[in-house]
Amino acid sequence: MLLWVSLLVLAPVSGQFATEPKSVIFLHSPWTTVFQGENVTLTCKAFHLDASEKIKWYRWYLLEKTQSETSGNTHEVHESGDYRCQAQDSPLSNRVGLFFSPANLILQAPLDVFEKESVILRCRAKANTGLKTIKLYKNGKVLEDHTVEISVGMLTDFHIHQASLKDNGKYHCTGVKEDDQLVSSNSVKIEVQELFPRPVLRASSTQPTEGGAVTLTCETQLSPQRPDVQLQFHFFRDRRSLGSGWGSSPEFWIHTIWRENSGSYWCQAQSMNSSVQKQSQRLQIQVKKVVPDIRIYSRPKLVFEGQELVLICSVNGVPGPITVSWYRKFKLRTERKLHTSSETEFKIPVVQNSHDGEYYCVASNSRSSFRSDPVTINVKGVLLMKIEATLWRTMSYRFSLTEEHSGNYYCTADNGLGLQSSETLRLSVTIPVSHPVLTLRAPGAQAVVGDMMELHCEAQRGSPPIWYHFYHEDVSLESSSSSFGRGASFNLLLTAEHSGNYFCEANNGQGFQRSNTVSLTVRVPVSQPVLTLRASRAQAVVGDMLELHCEAQRGSPPILYQFYHKDVAVGNSSATLGGGASFNLSLTTKHSGNYSCKAGNGLGVQQSEVMLLSVIVPVSRPILTLRAPRAQAVVGDVVELHCEAQRGSPPILYQFYHKNVTLESSMSHSGQGVSLNLSLTANHSGTYSCEADNGLGPQCSEAVTLSITGISSRDQGSSRPQASPSGSCLGSPPQG
């Protein structure tokens, strides 16, 4: 029978990145109403970052009082009431009401119902209650009526498809028993919740300047009760789709926005199966026009021959990335492009008289170009000394050299009949290099295998060109020349072998200078660890001491190892020198299951493959039972011999004995006992015993005597149970 229902849930509206989410309770089985005598398993989950790595305890509350504290996240309950849980470092969960009903008929519903989901309402009768007719009611009115022959213990499911708000209400079911007695179930209140609220579109700026970047964020909050649901997002401007369509990221980046990109923006969010889709309101973004400001400056302002001249292009209001071109204007209205680069400075290392003229710069992006006003450069000579010579035709001038004295020199002579200039001589003052500084530049705070490491060597003083040499443990790696005094770099793709000491040398022909030594430690991420289960024998047996050993073959210490049983953390250990870590367990039957371990050294966590552990329980002493159709067995009766051990892991081999003679063997794979039927003759009187063995040592029952009526007591033997003879069941004393 089908019931078409739509469900809607109103979840709290919060940001995409809400803080301190509550703990959440999940039910297994999913029903909030069950029969008395049944159990419900609660699972507590936390959703803060790295929850699985940190949680050491879970607290369970019933009627606001602490019921227990566990290391695992599951808890089995059998009492009615409101339950809450709290994972370490997380707030308390919402209340979850459970009802363990004594009634003959119950209506079962899931804890949470979300929009567009398929939901089952289960009308269930007790095992001893047979029903002829089932009816389902909503708010007191019959929804569906179907008469069926229902066997004892059967149930009827009512299906709700594509749930929505119209299906909110109180539901119950009734049934008519075989004797025409009417029975009624409990009431269940259905409130359909939102899977996620309507998204809100936010922008990093609603009035950006053209050429700038804008980030759009489609904010919503998925219900924590549905952690397995994934959302997709789609962004639009007016009626146009942005990007490549649906994607998993709630953010969309517009790296460069222009005035024509102004408009109405909106987004959509939907579940991965597209069953729930919602649209945000529209957000207006108005892109402001850029007002460029391009100016050119010279440094220094007064330019003398022999000095360095730096032209600076100040660029404001031009969206990047930009390139800068430099131009020089000549007489006769001609001009020449000097240089183009992404740098906003242009250098003339040594200025001469010929560098007189007008200069301007042009800043360009991918869409347009903007020109500065020109600046005029007038190169002046520097007067060093003025000397009047009355007796000599030659004069000298001496000075102590510094690096500022590089440049062009000339002299003039004047005796009142006209000034004469000499030819210009070029003087280059070479400065020895200073001690270089070696800098190691990695992409992160730590140097990790696979990173690209830049080694940069630079001397703060020294005339170019300068040769730089890089060394690792006194072995030369690379040489590089710098013609502009900015140092030199060398890149290394890091491996573990690159750990060690580095230094560099600088030389411009005036002698080598060596940097200080810099030590580099290259850290290696952990490899996938290997989990080994070490027991004292081939099979793990209750009472044995089991060692769990986890070891990663690669990885820089210290390494933190964590051990898991059925995805629940059971212990951790840190290895500071390598070699892995171990964790010991004294085995019980509860230790059977899947085990894994994780290894981490701050560069990521790796998990081992899962290992299955089966803990074997030795068989207990079996019990032999003789089952006859009457109090006194007679010849011709069929007697059942039943042998069963109350404890022991299957398969168990059972053997039956009569007067120390093996009758039959039978294997039990289910853990239950086995039986042997005998059609009695006079020869069947006497003592019987049985033996159970699952490979961990046989156990023997006590001996039981079968007396057959009509046979002399001399042939019957004793009527008391007897212990088996020494030996096994054929000769050893009985074992407990």
Automatic annotation (TrEMBL):
<keyword id="KW-0675">Receptor</keyword>
<keyword id="KW-0325">Glycoprotein</keyword>
<feature type="domain" description="Ig-like">
    <location>
        <begin position="21"/>
        <end position="97"/>
    </location>
</feature>
<feature type="domain" description="Ig-like">
    <location>
        <begin position="102"/>
        <end position="189"/>
    </location>
</feature>
<protein>
    <submittedName>
        <fullName>Fc receptor-like protein 5 isoform X4</fullName>
    </submittedName>
</protein>
<keyword id="KW-0472">Membrane</keyword>
<dbReference type="GO" id="GO:0006955">
    <property type="term" value="P:immune response"/>
</dbReference>
<keyword id="KW-0732">Signal</keyword>
<keyword id="KW-1015">Disulfide bond</keyword>
<feature type="domain" description="Ig-like">
    <location>
        <begin position="197"/>
        <end position="284"/>
    </location>
</feature>
<dbReference type="Pfam" id="PF13927">
    <property type="entry name" value="Ig_3"/>
</dbReference>
<feature type="signal peptide">
    <location>
        <begin position="1"/>
        <end position="15"/>
    </location>
</feature>
<feature type="domain" description="Ig-like">
    <location>
        <begin position="436"/>
        <end position="519"/>
    </location>
</feature>
<dbReference type="InterPro" id="IPR050488">
    <property type="entry name" value="Ig_Fc_receptor"/>
</dbReference>
<feature type="domain" description="Ig-like">
    <location>
        <begin position="529"/>
        <end position="613"/>
    </location>
</feature>
<feature type="region of interest" description="Disordered">
    <location>
        <begin position="712"/>
        <end position="736"/>
    </location>
</feature>
<dbReference type="InterPro" id="IPR003599">
    <property type="entry name" value="Ig_sub"/>
</dbReference>
<keyword id="KW-1003">Cell membrane</keyword>
<feature type="domain" description="Ig-like">
    <location>
        <begin position="622"/>
        <end position="707"/>
    </location>
</feature>
<keyword id="KW-0677">Repeat</keyword>
<dbReference type="InterPro" id="IPR003598">
    <property type="entry name" value="Ig_sub2"/>
</dbReference>
<keyword id="KW-1133">Transmembrane helix</keyword>
<keyword id="KW-0812">Transmembrane</keyword>
<dbReference type="GO" id="GO:0004888">
    <property type="term" value="F:transmembrane signaling receptor activity"/>
</dbReference>
<dbReference type="InterPro" id="IPR013783">
    <property type="entry name" value="Ig-like_fold"/>
</dbReference>
<dbReference type="Pfam" id="PF13895">
    <property type="entry name" value="Ig_2"/>
</dbReference>
<feature type="compositionally biased region" description="Polar residues">
    <location>
        <begin position="712"/>
        <end position="729"/>
    </location>
</feature>
<feature type="domain" description="Ig-like">
    <location>
        <begin position="292"/>
        <end position="378"/>
    </location>
</feature>
<dbReference type="GO" id="GO:0007166">
    <property type="term" value="P:cell surface receptor signaling pathway"/>
</dbReference>
<keyword id="KW-0393">Immunoglobulin domain</keyword>
<dbReference type="InterPro" id="IPR007110">
    <property type="entry name" value="Ig-like_dom"/>
</dbReference>
<dbReference type="GO" id="GO:0009897">
    <property type="term" value="C:external side of plasma membrane"/>
</dbReference>
<dbReference type="InterPro" id="IPR036179">
    <property type="entry name" value="Ig-like_dom_sf"/>
</dbReference>
